[in-house]
Amino acid sequence: MDSKSATIIASAAYLPPKRVENSHFETYLNTSDSWIYERTGIKERRWAENDVKASDMGLIAAKEALKKAQIDPKEVDLILVATMTPDQPLPSTAAIIQSKLEGCRAPAMDISAACSGYLYGLSVAKAFIESGMYATILLIGCEKMTQVLDPEDRSTVILFGDGAGASVIKKGGSGLRIDRVVLGLDGNLAGSLCIPNGKKMQMSGQEIFKTAIQKGVEIIELLMEQEMLSMNDIRYILFHQANIRIMQNIQKRLLIPEEKVPTTIGYTANTSAASIPILLQSIPHEKNHRYMSVAFGAGFTYAGAVFTSL
Ligand code: COA
Fold first, then answer.
1. Ligand 1, CB cutoff 6 Å, lining residues
2. CB 140, CB 8: distance < 8 Å
3. Which fold has domain 6-173?
4. Residue in 22, 115, 243, 249 annotated catalytic
5. Secondary structure class of 70 (helix, strand, coil)
6. Catalytic member of 22, 142, 240, 243
7. Active site residue 115
8. Peptide bond connecting 300 to the previous residue in cis, omega within 30 degrees of 0
9. pLDDT level of residue 3 (50, 70, 90 thresholds)
10. Which residue's CA is minimally distant from atom 40 of ligand 1?
């Protein structure tokens, strides 16, 4: 690893102001605050207003990340937007964000890998930067999950929230050096979590729950082997925030101490591709540590990454 490695030099997150507590669902569904909290670890989530789209939230996070990185939008070479809730089928959400980033003329594209989208995007950014094709990449994860949820489906509507996160990635520098990214997909499970045309989200909760634990364990073991790491070498494992019980199951199987697993699930719920950059923003930056990140989602996609904090 050297100064040629792609590095996240700044990140930012945005959560819409409207807080929705579990008690909201008690008013019209056969559910309870205690059922939701005990099964998922979620207490509340943020919902965007009707006229706010994924691109609006992504744009706010992107501008903040660029400001932190002291990068002018003109300097961005490529915009990647991970989302499963695009504003509309065409043009891409990435194109819409580019049009609102003053002075930015970068090519832009969406990445559709559901809740693994941010790590899938990170792998694309790493490859482009380390090949020398681009110097500065803006990676955004933004989701308006409320647009794809059936408010009457108690098994899905309670699980998700709206929000956005963004990262600026460059060669070298201080921040989070991206040492390795691994990607995976089991297409046989494509029907377990899907949004058929014209319909709202459909999910086979138990199948997703079981597979997320199995793949999460596999990815962590694989990354530890590839990077020759023991659990003691890892400062944080940044899990995609889907369900506290998925994280706890993986922690138990791999003997991961609680202090290595920061969470936002209690107040964000599952924000899909935005969840990892939002989580990243919630922890202090500590230099000279190894971090790991693990994500899984519809597809069934899964991904992992190892970083060095510099
Ligand atoms: N309130 C009360 N009861 C609910 C409920 C809710 N919000 N949602 C589902 N139930 C009911 C089910 O209808 C079922 O009732 P039944 O026994 O009468 O059929 C019962 O609770 C048990 O359902 P089950 O699916 O076994 O519950 P669970 O312990 O697996 O928890 C999930 C359900 C959805 C919380 C859990 O499966 C889960 O989190 N799965 C992963 C989902 C996920 O993370 N998706 C995104 C991946 S990125």
1. 31, 35-36, 39-40, 115, 154-155, 158-159, 203, 205-206, 208-209, 242-243, 270, 296-297
2. no
3. Peroxisomal Thiolase; Chain A, domain 1 (3.40.47)
4. 115
5. coil
6. 240
7. yes
8. yes
9. low
10. 205
